[in-house]
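Quiz preparation item.
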């Protein structure tokens, strides 16, 4: 015959309570983690992208979505304008710029994921004229109006200004410039013939089956286009997948086919 032991019964009951509470807490924590992950994955990957690369990115994202099922949202604009938005807390996940200066500045200000800054493309500046077949020598005869992107906010506008300065023509052109807020607006002004000619991204010519002339890289600083992942992003894993996709060998060849320079070609032209 076993005697009833109140102490042992109390300990057993207490153990059951602790296990029950622990299980309830663990289940709640797991549920919260699942909800948190679902919340992040439900949000599209917000991509701040430079105007020149936007048409190319739209094409590339079709395959990216097929491969990853990651939904994306594009916010396009001039690199300088997007840079200022990020500095002031705009909720972007990844910044695909048209230069290396702004990504480097964001890195210095500790606003990006460590080691995420990478060069994904080398831009090429091109002279486009809708009235005639463009030649480099045309630049020495300043037209009534000439289109470039804003040199202060758009890297292709900065390269355009550097080109005219290199040729000693900047003072002749200044009063005749029609400046777009980004290189896409500049291209639209020329294509609509609101302005007869100007300097744009070579990729815009390739994508629209137009003929122009590529400006020698010795006329301006290299247009090394870099990307960074924003540190405050809630979609860092998805952003890294997009970065890796853009840097993959297959996609790099596609980017070159859209009018960007190859890294090897750039080294050869620079004498490296």
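Solution:
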């Amino acid at each position: 015959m076993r005697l009833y032991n109140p102490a042992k019964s109390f300990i057993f009951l207490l153990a059951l309570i602790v296990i029950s509470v622990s299980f309830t807490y663990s289940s709640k924590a797991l549920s919260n983690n699942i909800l948190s992950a679902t919340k992040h994955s439900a949000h599209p990957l917000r991509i701040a992208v430079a105007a020149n690369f936007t048409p190319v990115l739209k094409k590339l994202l079709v395959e990216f979505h097929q491969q990853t099922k990651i939904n994306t949202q594009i916010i396009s604009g001039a690199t300088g304008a997007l840079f200022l938005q990020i500095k002031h807390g705009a909720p972007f996940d990844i910044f695909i710029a048209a230069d290396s200066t702004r990504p480097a500045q964001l890195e210095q200000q500790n606003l990006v994921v460590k080691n995420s800054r990478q060069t994904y493309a080398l831009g090429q500046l091109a002279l486009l004229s809708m009235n005639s077949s463009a030649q480099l020598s045309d630049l020495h005869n300043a037209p009534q109006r000439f289109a470039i992107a804003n040199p202060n906010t758009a890297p292709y506008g900065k390269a355009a200004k550097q080109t005219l300065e290199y040729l000693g023509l900047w003072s002749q052109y200044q009063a005749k410039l029609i400046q777009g807020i980004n290189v896409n607006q500049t291209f639209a002004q020329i294509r609509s013939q609101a302005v007869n000619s100007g300097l744009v991204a070579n990729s815009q010519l390739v994508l629209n089956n137009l003929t122009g002339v590529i400006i020698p890289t010795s006329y301006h600083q290299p247009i090394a286009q870099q990307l960074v992942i924003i540190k405050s992003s809630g979609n860092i894993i998805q952003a890294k997948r997009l970065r890796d996709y853009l840097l993959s060998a297959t996609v790099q060849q596609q980017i070159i086919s859209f009018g960007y320079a190859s890294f090897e070609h750039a080294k050869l032209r620079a004498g490296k």
